[in-house]
Amino acid sequence: MSHITIYTQDDCPPCTFVKNHLQANHVDFTEKNIKNNQYRIEMMDYDAFATPFILLNDEPMYQVDMDKINQAFDIQ
């Protein structure tokens, strides 16, 4: 089964778009808002410096790839 973690920040329209898309399709996800310093450091450990930063099945996604996300969760 696929799993997804999204590193986000406040006032981030792309973050909101991805979260809303997953919620609308009943996909559970873990959100890590980088205002929490621990999550910011975790994200930077992946050499990621922009949100949303996504881990899809523990694989880093540096650019949002909705096709890949939809395929992983069988979203039509």
Automatic annotation (TrEMBL):
Pfam families (UniProt xref): Glutaredoxin
Domain of life: Bacteria
Domain Glutaredoxin: 4-58
Matching PROSITE patterns: GLUTAREDOXIN_2 (PS51354)
Name of protein: Glutaredoxin family protein
Annotated organism of origin: Staphylococcus warneri
